[in-house]
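Lab manual, section 2.4: Encoding a predicted structure.

Procedure: take the sequence of the chain (137 residues), apply the prediction step described in section 2.3, and record the output as structure tokens. A sample record is shown.
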Amino acid sequence: MSNVAKFRDFLTREKIYMNELKEDDTTFFRAEQKLKDGWKVLLVFAFNQNENVADLFCFNVAELKNPDKRRDVHTLLNEYNANFRYSKLYEEKGTISIRYSYSLEGEFLPDLAFRKLIMLIETAEQVYPSLMEVIWS
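Recorded output:
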């Protein structure tokens, strides 16, 4: 059974709803999720064409609308990235997101893979207050 099929079956069995899409030889699953403060993020679990690499994203963790704050926000992102082992934060066109990628070697365990996606939500919850403090200061 393919890794995509294993992940799909896991989601169905656990009654977790994620949209499945295929684009440019990448199959991905996505779902909106609210952080504790009500801010909405987009979770994405993507398989490459060979299903041997997973790219996980938590998009839209925060928005940087004031270009004068870019340097301070990037300094904070660099601090987090130096201290976080897996989750990596980045800013692209004013949107701050989190990414985690890993190789799918050996047996693919969808429940473990999903827990890695949950790790991104937990990271977003952790960094959001500090990001907002810098953005609003």
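Check your result against the sample. The longest helix spans residues 110-136.
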